[in-house]
Write a structure and sequence with these properties.
Layout (H helix, E strand, L loop, with lengths): L6 H4 L22 E3 L3 H5 L2 E6 L9 H14 L4 E5 L3 H13 L2 E7 L5 H9 L3 E5 L3 H14 L3 E2 L5 H7 L1 H10 L5 E5 L4 H15 L8 E7 L4 H4 L21 H11 L2 E5 L1 H15 L5 H15 L8 E6 L24 H8 L1
């Protein structure tokens, strides 16, 4: 099977589709697993980055959305809806446009990165901003789907996880087996759950010899799973994981525990340091939520929870251009110069 056929065709035997399923695809998946050239040796591990920012709408959400929209089409839906902090909105809007469906997006007021909002609008979605946070927006959307024949495409939709689990398949295919550890950001907690589904299925099918330990990281200002209770007003620079009451909370906890891993938190300062380090040392520009996995990896190694020499994959969930305004928080700044070679020499040298 040609990799560039999209994840449904490539992994059809593992997915709940049939010949009657109208596949809506933008050729998602087949994202690169990039070997570290710097951070891995510094940390004493065999490190790889699963760069999901190179999916069609620049985030991992496309894996789940090709499934959700395809099944919505199969079920004769006329519209789809989601609440979103950005990436789900962008993906839903793109795939709905591809599938000829109306898309309605509900976003929390002032809490969506400009790149993600732009995507939602340009793909023709009806975008509605509400004066509530994500968790409250999702509650409103759920109420609407109970009253009207609209398909919900948030990660409550089981087909989303079915699509997202294919990233685990790709990691095993590329490495020849599962890694020792998978480190991943945690927001609404669907992705860590999906990876566990994928690794477990590949092991059961004999396509890998083991499953990795899953280590998830939330942002300190939005870490309900770690603190053990919902957070009414979550806040973090990592907008994609700014969620105070994850819908896959219990499933994510189960995934971490069953794998022998855990879910922890990192601060915004640690996230921003990792965000800048990943770009400047590895040449990979990922959004702040993605950098939570790098910050978490560093923390885990410092605490002795990941042993030296281990093979580790960090999941980078979205591209840095999704949230370009965050770059204003990094140390590197634009320098000013008069327009002469002499003035430029003084600054450069």
């Amino acid at each position: 099977m040609d990799k560039r056929s999209g994840i449904i065709e490539r992994y059809r035997k593992f997915l709940p589709v049939s010949e009657q399923t109208p596949v809506v695809t933008l050729l998602e998946g087949d994202t690169p697993l990039i070997a570290s050239r710097s951070l891995g040796s510094e940390l004493g591990i065999d490190l790889y980055f699963k760069y999901e920012g190179l999916n069609p709408t620049c985030s991992f959400k496309d894996r789940g959305m090709t499934m959700a929209i395809s099944k919505a089409k199969e079920e004769d839906a006329i519209a789809v809806i989601c609440a979103s902090t950005g990436n789900t909105a962008a993906s839903a809007a793109a795939y709905a446009a591809r599938g000829g469906l109306r898309c309605i997006v509900v976003i929390p007021e002032g809490k969506i990165a400009v790149g993600k909002l732009a995507q939602s609008l340009v793909h023709g979605a009806t975008v509605v901003e509400v004066d509530k946070n994500f968790d409250q927006a999702l509650k409103i959307v759920l109420e609407l789907t109970e009253k009207h024949p609209i398909t919900l495409v948030n990660s409550i939709n089981a087909y989303r996880l079915e699509g997202q689990k294919t990233a685990a398949f790709e990691i095993c295919d590329d490495l020849g087996d599962a890694p020792d550890y998978l480190v991943i950001p945690v927001g609404n907690a669907g992705n860590i759950s999906a990876y566990w589904m994928g690794f477990s299925e590949y092991k059961k099918d004999g396509l890998s010899s083991k499953s990795p330990k899953l280590i998830g990281f939330q942002a300190a200002g939005a870490a309900p799973i770690v603190v053990g209770h919902p957070i009414e007003a979550p806040e973090t620079v990592a907008t994609a994981i700014r969620i105070g009451n994850p819908v896959r909370w219990e499933q994510a906890n189960d995934a971490a525990k069953e794998s022998g891993g855990y879910i922890d938190l990192v601060t915004d300062r640690e996230i921003l340091d990792a965000y800048e380090m990943l770009a400047s040392k590895e040449g990979i520009f990922a959004e702040p939520a993605s950098a939570a996995s790098i910050a978490g990896l560093r923390k885990s190694i410092q605490e002795g929870k990941i042993t030296g020499g281990s093979r580790v994959v960090c999941v980078l969930t979205g591209h840095g251009l999704k949230d370009p305004t965050t770059t204003r928080l990094i140390k590197n700044k634009v320098l000013q110069s008069e327009a002469t070679s002499e003035a430029l020499e003084k600054i450069i040298f």
